[in-house]
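Sanity check

After download, print the first record. It should look like this:
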Amino acid sequence: MTIDHESVPRPGGPLSARRLLGTELLERPAAGPRARPAPQVGRHRRPLRSRVALPAGLLGCDVLALAAAAALTTPGPPPLAAALLGLLLPLNLAGGLYRSRLTVSALDDLPALAGRAAVSTAFAVTLAACLGRFVPGPAALFRFAGLLTAFTLLACLGRAAAYALLRRARRRRPSPTLVLGAGQLGQRIAAVLLEHREYGLRPVGYLDSQPVLLAPDAPLRLLGGHDALESQIRRKRIHHVIATEGAADDAATAAALRTAARLGCRVWVVPQLREYAALGRRGTDQLWGFPCLPLERPAVRRPGWVAKRALDVAAAGFGLLLLSPVLAACALAVRCDTGPGVLFRQQRTGLDGQAFTLLKFRTLRPSNEHESATRWNISQDHRMGAVGRLLRRTSLDELPQLWNVVRGDMSLVGPRPERPYFVMRFGQAYPEYQDRHRVPAGLTGLSQVNGLRGDTSIEDRARFDNRYIESWSLWQDAKILLRTAVLMLHPDGS
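Expected structure tokens:
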């Protein structure tokens, strides 16, 4: 279930971590700022009203439209209209009809509104018929068709009014915006924003790490490189960041965008290759004809993360209660094998590069703290007794980490935590390794269930861990937990 032993490959093939830590890694230079643990970043968020005004207004439009349509068509008893509302709003929310966008249009929303209203109506009619509250007939079905038509038209009219008010508010109070990339595309995007204030974005300057010569009469100036992003966001109270010039493919720019997202900014990417917009990605927007792709919010800021934390606490707490006899038996066996101090405490690196104390059952007693912090692998240590080998082989020594989950130091699913010493070493070799700390560490993770445990590649493991973070969902967590349970039936001691 858990992995504490890793290796780093050399370009021509795999290289054990023990050899690399002793020779090759010590000779490699640091990879710049990303080689250090990610700092604790204070968030600088947009004002609450600017984030909730549009979604709340659109939600209110739909509620009023449905109430007015029900009053006009009288399709059935009030509970039926309530059931229709209860089905329609979640469908609209899942379809992104309440999200904030750069380009807003009631006609763009019309097909999605009509389709989801039809699905909700069908479910409501079926539910009412099953409960005996409604007897289908030609007249009743005709009234439901009228309800559907009336709601769609009224909702579109309400959204048209809401969008008109939104454009007016955006012109009056545009949000400060940074443009990453001062090249030709970046300057054209800035010109569009200055000319078309209905987008609600007011560019305040460029950030570009490459030397750029701007015209003397240019309306915006270069504020620095990517390393000035955080200071400029705080100084100018930036709410939006727009990246240009192939930013999605540039590692330094990608790191800057992640920093902006952690600070609470809304991040957009304008790709040079327009065909990116044809991929049909959900949420694709446009700025005066330029395709504009929104960067997904960090996983820890999505609504589902609250459910993940609740699941962690409930499952870990229940696991501690259910496995209390097993925990007691393991503690007694460790006490008899290694003497007093059945719990082994070790510093590990978690969310945002912050250290926490990880708990395990002791499988051997290290000679000193330095050995505990810097020795790579103890699986073949002659000091480990039969009890320790059994605990490690069955992963029972990891059970106390359920308490780390309850405390909030870890999650059930996430990148496996490593000791700060090795985090520094691996971060020097592979800058992507530091990106694993965007979410809390986990008992198990995507890399582990794909066989990347034991003496395997650090580079591959970091790639899988970052893939997990960038595509996170509750269902993905459930799949990883199920696959972990299957793997635990065939323990291999790693």
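If your output differs, re-run the checksum step. Summary of this record's structure: The chain has a mean pLDDT of 79.
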